[in-house]
Amino acid sequence: MLFKDEVEIWVTAGKGGDGSKSFRREKYISKGGPDGGDGGDGGNIVFLVNPHLRTLSHIHNRQKFYAENGENGKRKQMHGRNGEDKVIEVPPGTVVWDVETGNQLADLTEPWNKTIIAHGGRGGRGNVHFKSATNQTPFYAESGKPGESYHLRLELKMIAHIGLVGFPNAGKSTLISRLTNARPKIANYPFTTLEPHVGVMTLDDAYTSVLIADIPGLIEGAHRGKGLGIEFLKHIERTKVLLFVLDVTDEPEKHFNVLREELKAYSEKLYQRPFLIALNKKDLLSEEPSQREQFFSRIAPCFLISALTGEGLKELKIALYQAYQQEEQKEFPDDTSSSQR
Q: Which compartments does it reside in (predicted)?
């Protein structure tokens, strides 16, 4: 299925049913009073977070969604049926924006949570409510109210704890396949990864696991629209820790500086995120790059690894988990179970 992380739609909640203008018509009662029932409420537009979804591809761009209208009131004070809600399923991490105002209406992260985005109109009252001492036969009933209507933009920002950042061919796809259960396409040419991937990294203890996201590789000038990675940086905005994956055989110092500048140009908040460094493709070196490793170790925790052979990955996994745990404890200092979030 084609990956899609942004779509515009229109939604309209159901109109409330009209109240009934009815009078009792029974044998031997020549002048029956009002007995018009109320109209039913219109259905709502409801967003349901489905944890099994990973993309917005099931929603067509510029698609229109309508909830059911409420039923009109009936005679004998019978209430009209409420309209059925229109439920739209979205993946976790979906942000709902009002296109007209630019306001964020919802940030949908909790699995199976339901959120009403557009409320249905209230049903009108039947004429039985308007009987009075001076008006025994009211010929008036309320009309149902229209439902809310919105022009929406849905934006998917994947939920992950750690984000991988690197140039094309730095080995990120191979690395995430070794660290987690993700199975991205892997090949030796640029932009193999055409969509973000999220995998679960588990340590020896089954309870200690975190989500890691891999995005398409960045290149210099990405913030000006070059390459593919800039389109997917929003998928690591929610992460607490970044891992810079650098090809140790291909100017890692230069690439690191470029990556940092691209992040800064995109988001100062993302640029300030704590990070670790993985010097990948150790298996291609004929000798230990001690000076290079020392250079990066002065910047951040640095690990010389080979995603292909698995060398150094155990130490990297532990360090990643510890870094994530530290950030969790900063956010939830009094919650001893925060590391299991």
A: Cytoplasm
**pLDDT tens string 77-123:** 899 999 999 999 999 999 999 999 999 999 999 999 999 999 999 99
195 is in an annotated binding site: yes
Q: Mean pLDDT for each 10-residue chunk of the chain (341 residues)?
A: 81 97 74 87 97 89 96 92 97 95 95 97 94 84 96 92 89 88 51 67 72 76 52 83 94 92 89 95 79 87 93 93 89 55 44
Spatial distance between the Cα atoms of 47 and 89, rounded to a whole number of angstroms: 6
* Rounded Cα–Cα distance for residues 335 and 341 (Å): 10
Q: Is 172 annotated as a binding residue?
A: yes
Handedness of CA 172, 173, 179, 180 (dihedral sign): positive
> What φ, ψ does residue 292 adopt, rounded to 5°?
-65, -45
> 29: annotated binding-site residue?
no
| Nearest CA among 236, 297, 298 for reference residue 269 | 236
Is 280 assigned a ligand-binding role in the annotation? yes
42 assigned ligand-binding residue: no
Distance CA 5, CA 59 (A): 10
Please give the Cα distance from 255 to 262 (Å, whole number).
11
Q: Which tokens is 264 given?
A: 């800064």
Contact 71, 59 (CB under 8 A): no
Q: Is 152 flagged in the annotation as binding?
A: no
Element (H, E) at 174: helix 172-179
Is 185 marked as a binding-site residue?
no
- Over residues 163-178, the pLDDT tens digits come to 999 988 888 888 988 8
Domains of the chain plus CATH, in order, are 1-156 (2.70.210.12), 162-340 (3.40.50.300)
How far apart CA 246 and CA 278 sit, in angstroms, is 6
